[in-house]
Amino acid sequence: MNPRALGAILSVATVSLLSVGRLFFQVVDFYPTAPSTDGVTEFDRRFVALRGMLPPKGIIGYMTDPETPPGDTNAQAEYHLTQYSLAPILVVNSPQQRFVIGNFHTTVTTGGLRDRGFKLVKEFGNGIALLENEKVR
Predict the structure, then answer these.
(1) DSSP class of residue 127?
(2) How far is it, in rounded angstroms, from Cα 29 to Cα 93?
(3) Where do the domains of the chain lie?
(4) Does the global pTM surpass 0.90?
């Protein structure tokens, strides 16, 4: 092969490799290094410690902040996400069960809970608490 043809082939190969390399770095920059966590996964993480304390099946009550208006869409969404997080345990949207999950966004004192007939079993942080309804045995 003559030197001119060899030089032309090497030039075309070099330009092709540089073009592929540039495309590779553009693709790497396009995709983030770690996927961001979605809201459902973040919500679900709040219940990991609680899940370990609950039996594998049964019925448990649910309550949220006392001042939350009935029909509040955010409160309803969080109730359904709580059901999802704790399945197969049946979570009912009522504090009239012996054990009740508290999903609070405002500070609730143990005195305030006691006044309403609840005993704090354990607080898990992030607004999650396990309560015992002392009116239901």
Answers:
(1) T
(2) 46
(3) 1-31, 39-133
(4) no
Query: Cβ neighbours of residue 55 under 8 Å, at least 6 residues apart?
Result: 89
CA separation (Å) from 105 to 22, 36, 65, 89? 49, 24, 7, 23
Phi, psi of 125 (to 5 degrees): 85, 170
Token pair for residue 33? 């290094």
pLDDT in tens, 77-117: 999 999 999 999 999 999 999 999 999 988 878 788 898 89
56 cis-preceded (ω within 30 degrees of 0) = no
pLDDT of residue 6: 79
Give the 3-state secondary structure of residue 94. Answer: coil
- Among 66, 70, 107, 62, smallest CA distance to 89 is for 62
Instruction: Tell how strand 128-133 and strand 99-103 pair up.
Output: antiparallel
* Nearest in space to 86 (alpha carbons), one of 58, 121, 51, 125: 51
